[in-house]
Amino acid sequence: MIVGGAILAGIFSLNHSAPELSPLLNTTSAHAGHAYRQFSDMEIRMMYGAFTAVTLCANLIFALAPSREIPDCIEGKHNKLRRTFKEELDMVLAAFVNKRMIALSPLFLHLGFYTSFWVCVYPTTLVFTKSLSNHIYLPAFYSLTVGTGEVVMGIIISTLSKRIKDFGLKPTMFCGFGLTSVILAVMVAAVPKSATVGLTDEPAWLVQPSVVLSVFTAFLIGLADSCVNNVRTVICALALPDHRAQAFAISKFYQAFAGTILMFLSPYLSIYHYSALLFFTLCLSTSCFVHVAGRTKRMERESIRQYLDAKDVLPEKY
């Protein structure tokens, strides 16, 4: 997101002419003179060209990156068994119907809805809202700020995880719940109802949109997204320790599926619909995650107890 924001800022700065504006078609005579931000064909070509180049470079770096064995790594090569494609597929299907993965599916679906919303829907409202139309660098600021929020929350989680046991589980999920709730409340109050589907000059419900508020919301989005992605990664590794890769792949399937559904429904949804949907999936996913995380930790303690009993070792503390 940070690199993407820098690319957008560079492209917009190269366009020395004034931003292309277009009048709102369905408007009253009192607002007939209002204009809205439109991206030129050159800007669109430059954006897609730059992001294509970055994607190709990223794939090239990944393909050429050296692989080396790390001592005591739980995913080390010496711990892996060679399996055929059919065996791998059978493992994925078995993980699909696992009770824990089914219980975690609301979390993965929420992640898909939420990701599609902050990547596609909310940035669109920044362009479709009249009071923000003249701020041509706002999409770049949005991307930069979301990326900054992701990095900041990643540092916070990694730091507190060293001090607080299991901070990457329930505490991080509760942080994500609180941040997402604040984000949705701000959007309901400060985003015009129909800004998700078309150009609009209607006022917001309580607070009128502004650049500062939009950038602050973007920062909160980055914080919340980092929380939810972190707990997804951790719970996939803990819920199915012998099928980590399959669990993560299944979570991405649910995420993509939810994002696809949201994009098909997007022409019919206002900001209030999005907020209600996301809050419902947030509550459901948090409840399911807390349940699965609690059961996983209990089973982990039971496994440790059985191991210590077999070794005739008296544990001091679980």
From TrEMBL:
It is a multi-pass membrane protein. It is found in: Membrane. InterPro entries: Ion_channel_UNC-93, MFS_trans_sf, UNC-93-like_regulator. The chain crosses the membrane at residues 48-65, 107-128, 140-160, 172-192, 204-224, 245-265, 271-293. Keywords: Membrane, Transmembrane, Transmembrane helix. GO terms for cellular component: membrane. It holds the Pfam family UNC-93. Its main location: membrane. PANTHER family: ET TRANSLATION PRODUCT-RELATED, UNC93-LIKE PROTEIN MFSD11. Belongs to the unc-93 family. This is Major facilitator superfamily (MFS) profile domain-containing protein.
